[in-house]
Amino acid sequence: MEKITLTMPASRALRGRALAGVVGSGDMEVLFTAEPGQTLTIDITTSVDNSRGRWEALFSRLQTVSSLPAGTLTIHDFGATPGVARIRIEQVFEGVSHA
């Protein structure tokens, strides 16, 4: 297991919390908690060692196509593909947007 913490600039304010996915399904789960500020802190626990570069690339890509919200994003990954990871992350951001 590898633990990764990333910090990204945030330019969007949201309120609330959201959960997407289920780690026990062999997939991943993502929990987002909105917080005031200008930073998104991402705490990742993954079964895939040496994956920091993949996660950094994923969040850099997300940042270029959408503004990231301020808060804490907790990810429990059980080897999900980058496509599934992006879907789960976008699901929690959308869930909080509509809360």
Overview of the structural elements:
The modification O-(phosphoribosyl dephospho-coenzyme A)serine is found at residue 25. Keywords: Cytoplasm, Phosphoprotein. By secondary structure, the chain is α+β, with helices and mostly antiparallel strands. Helices cover 30% and strands 35% of the residues. It has two helices and five strands, in the order E-E-E-E-H-E-H. Strands 1-4-5-3-2 form a five-stranded mixed β-sheet, covered by helices on one side. Strand 4 (39-46), helix 1 (52-65) and strand 5 form a beta-alpha-beta unit. The longest helix is centred in the C-terminal third of the chain and has 16 residues, at 82-97. It is globular and about 30 Å long. The N and C termini lie far apart (33 Å).
Which helices and strands, and how do they pair?
Layout: E1 2-9, E2 17-21, E3 28-34, E4 39-46, H1 52-65, E5 71-77, H2 82-97
Brief account:
This protein is of the alpha+beta class and 99 residues long. It is globular and about 30 Å long.
Largest sheet: 5 strands, mixed
The helix content is 25-40%
Q: Tell me the fraction of residues in β-strands, as a range.
A: 35-45%
**Order of secondary-structure elements:** EEEEHEH
Please give the number of β-strands: 5
State the distance separating the first and last CA atoms: 33 Å
Structural class, please? alpha+beta
Read across the widest sheet, the strand sequence of neighbours is 1-4-5-3-2
Rg over C-alpha atoms, rounded to the nearest angstrom = 12 Å
Count of discrete alpha- or pi-helical segments spanning 4 or more residues? 2
Overall pLDDT = 90
- Principal-axis shape equals globular
Stretches with pLDDT under 50, minimum 5 residues:
none
GO cellular component, one term: cytoplasm
Family: Belongs to the MdcC family.
Protein name: Malonate decarboxylase acyl carrier protein
Modified residues (O-(phosphoribosyl dephospho-coenzyme A)serine): 25
